[in-house]
Amino acid sequence: MIYCLIGPTACGKSSLSMALAQAGSLGTVEIVSLDSAQIYRGLDIGTAKPSAAEQSRVRHHLIDCRDPLESYSVAQFLRDAQTAIAEIRARGHTPLLVGGTMLYFKALREGIDDLPEVPPEIRSALAKEAAEVGWPALHRRLALVDPLTAQRLAPQDAQRISRALEVWTHTGRTLSSFHRNMEERPALYFNAPLSVIALQPEDRHWIHRRIAERFTEMMAAGFLHEVEGLMQRKELHPDLPSLRTVGYRQAWAHLSGQTDRATFIDQAVAATRQLAKRQITWLRSFHNMMRLDPSALSAETMLQQIRKTWTAP
């Protein structure tokens, strides 16, 4: 059995997964990250990456495996996750997939066709156009050619809007057409059943409060200092996929003198709220999983329910 714990940002996935891993009821657990930002080295505080102490207690995979200069695709994630899961199972240990990048989860469970390599000049042309007219304009264009993909993307989601338009421009096919239905292609990436539990908060005010509190903690932990360190690397710039991550994009703009501190904080918290809203929308579209409401249940109650549901392999 392979276990998976998903949910929106700031809902308590990491602490719950650590408690579950250390409880011993699943055997020796190794965590595989389903987080598209935690893969980048140097993006630690703003991604709520597990600490060195936590990683010493429970082995983690797909964390700190790319430089911020590098891009990282869903197809690459699938290959890396498949390798990590196979290695974990070969050791006789239990894989526990944890995170909130819903596209990764959907691809793992349902599979995708091999996405094409797109010539870099297409990406460059789209970036240049976006600088002139803005990403919302390109989002509107995407809605005309690939409404299914556009519907799940925010108008400012530059990385994913660009990717979808790149694929359309290069192949004439929509990005959504590369995603196969589960009935057509059942989970190919692991030869074991997948049991999924979703943390799905129903109280909007609860998740908003959690987001604000966590951002305050990140600021106290030195988030701006972390971004200042990234800015010292002259080859890095805010248009990189890694640095368009929620929080980092707003911090970079603030440290570049584009916003004052209060505006930066308001924008970062608002962007994180929007991220959580999109993640919850994704969750509601998924089927065949147990759902727990962290806004109504204590962490201890959820841990007990999960341990009752997931028995040792």
Describe the SSE topology:
Blueprint lengths: L1 E5 L6 H11 L5 E6 L17 H6 L2 E2 L12 H17 L3 E6 L2 H9 L9 H14 L1 H11 L1 H5 L6 H14 L22 E6 L4 H17 L2 H9 L16 H8 L5 H25 L4 E3 L6 H11 L4
Parallel strand pairs: 1-4, 1-5, 2-3, 2-4, 5-6
Helix pairs in contact: 3-4, 5-6, 5-8, 6-8, 9-12, 10-11, 11-12
Account of the 3D structure:
By secondary structure, the chain is of the alpha/beta class. The chain contains 13 helices and six strands. The chain has a six-stranded parallel sheet with strand order 3-2-4-1-5-6, sandwiched between helices. Helix 2 links the parallel strand 2 and strand 3 (60-61). The longest helix is centred in the last third of the chain and has 25 residues, at 261-285. It is globular, with a radius of gyration of 19 Å. Residues 181-188 have low confidence and may be disordered.
State the main characteristics.
single chain; 313 residues; alpha/beta; 6-stranded parallel β-sheet; 13 helices; 6 strands; 9% strand
- Strand tally is 6
Shape: globular
Low-confidence stretches: 181-188
Our estimate of the beta-strand percent is 5-15%
Report how far apart the termini are: 6 Å
Structural class based on helices, strands and sheet pairing: alpha/beta
Spatially, the strands of the biggest sheet line up as 3-2-4-1-5-6
Question: Main β-sheet, in a few words?
Answer: 6 strands, parallel
Indicate the radius of gyration in whole angstroms: 19 Å
Write down the overall mean pLDDT.
91
Helical stretch tally:
13
Helix content: 40-55%
The arrangement of helices and strands along the chain is: EHEHEHEHHHHHEHHHHEH
